[in-house]
Amino acid sequence: MISTVRGILSLSKAETSDSSSDEDKGGDKKVLSVSWNQDWSGFIVGTKTGFNVYNSNPIKEKIIRDPHVSGLRIAEMLFFSNIFALVGNGYNSSEYPPNKVFIWDDLRNKCFCELAFRSPVIAVKLRREHIVVVLRKNIYVYCFKNLRVHCQIETAKNPKGLCCISNAETKAILACPGFQQGQVQVHDLRRNIIKIIQAHESDISCLSLTLDGSILATASVKGTLIRIFNPLNGTLLQELRRGIERAVIYSIAISLNLKWVAASSDKGTLHVFRLRPDVLSLDKNITDQASSFSFIRGILPKYLYDNERSFAQFSLPASTKFIVGFGPENTVLVVGVDGRFDDGEGGEMVELEHKHFFSLPQTDDTIVDT
Questions:
Q1: Stated pTM of the model
Q2: Is residue 294 part of a domain?
Q3: Is the pLDDT of residue 344 over 90?
Q4: Integer Cα distance of 242 and 234 in angstroms
Q5: H or E segment at 351?
Q6: Those residues with Cβ within 8 angstroms of residue 270's Cβ, 6 or more apart along the chain or in another chain
């Protein structure tokens, strides 16, 4: 029972927690944004009146906060802590304008910091040490400790707010679009090192880093290939083929155990690819060779550049935007459907579970910015 509205399932009254449902309040709740936390253990939904937080394993409602009369166009959570980043949609109220980021402390039930900008905020990313604010042509990185600017990054026009950042304590890696078509710039925030990767010939449409920042996945606006890189040295590790027809890649995720890559697109199929187990060790062995002779592809093992088909698939409504993540034991999580793929046989995945989170009217509004 998948909602017909942009990939948000609706939680029926019988399935809700102790909190009152939207139906109890006498109306539907409009969803403005949806995003996973850093390890897919939960997700946050920005609504027209506030935000809701959900556990993903098991799937259940965790908290409901309705502090904003104008709604939240962007809502991000920091793991399952009490810290959230919120951006208002700016309609009907100047109290929460779209050019400010509000850092919400849920223990105190109030915002303790406001970050203001001259242009609308397109995306926000959180890690334990940093707040990352994405504007159309700039990215600001703030230190959580003192709320001062750690660095400012210039990019080409970035209307989708593409940016990803690692969340392990050992690395602080940020990836975002470069200045040229198909470029990705990778910033090591601790060592102040910048690496430019020519990832695709066309514009970048999707980026994803592993939690520790050791692997970067990219897709272009063509949407036919997903490429896997070492983000620190730019080595191409693996190439995955989603299909031969042009597609819009909505979301890419790399599993925490570094075994799987999942991607959702507007073609209505969730693809799961097997990440070769030798990718990390192979990368270490060929790094020097690749950097010295990268202009001659033939000197590297051919299988580095042979694209590989997906290992498992799941059908989704093509008209809906889904964001994808990974749960335990070969479980793929999307905001909409929870499926599992077989570790041995592959092929078509089977739906295990679904939940309704909101009962929504049919609309053409997009609720997930990708």
A1: 0.78
A2: yes
A3: no
A4: 22
A5: strand 350-353
A6: 262, 263, 264, 313, 314, 315, 316, 322, 324, 332, 334, 337, 339, 349
Per-range mean pLDDT, top range of 71-75, 204-208, 290-294, 298-302: 204-208
- 52 in a domain, yes or no? no
What is the average pLDDT across 131-136? 97
Angstrom CA distances, 26 to 29, 65, 130, 158, 359, stand at 10, 17, 40, 39, 12
Boundaries of domain holding 320: 204-226+236-352
Amino acid at 70: S
The reply to whether 320 falls in a domain is yes
On whether residue 176 sits in a domain, the answer given is no
CB 184 within 8 A of CB 348: no
Q: How far apart are CA 65 and CA 67, in angstroms?
A: 6
Count other Cβ atoms within 10 Å, centred on residue 18. Answer: 5
Residue 314 near residue 270 (C-beta atoms within 8 A):
yes
- Determine which of 125-139, 241-255, 268-282 has the lowest per-residue pLDDT on average: 268-282
Enter the tokens of residue 179.
């200045």
Transcribe 176-205 into DSSP letters: EE-SSTTEEEEEETTTTEEEEEE--SSPEE
Amino acid at 232: L
Backbone angles phi, psi at 6, to 5 degrees: 45, 40
Q: In this structure, what token pair is assigned to residue 219?
A: 């897709």
Which residue type is seen at 119? S
Q: What's the structural domain count of the chain?
A: 1
Peptide bond between residue 67 and the one before it cis (omega within 30 degrees of 0): no
- CB neighbours of 169 closer than 8 A, spacing ≥ 6? 128
Domain harbouring 271, CATH code: 2.130.10.10
Taking the C-alpha atoms of residue 174 and residue 132, their distance in angstroms, rounded to an integer, is 9
Strand partners, 236: 229
Please report which residue ranges of the chain form alpha helices under DSSP H: 279-293
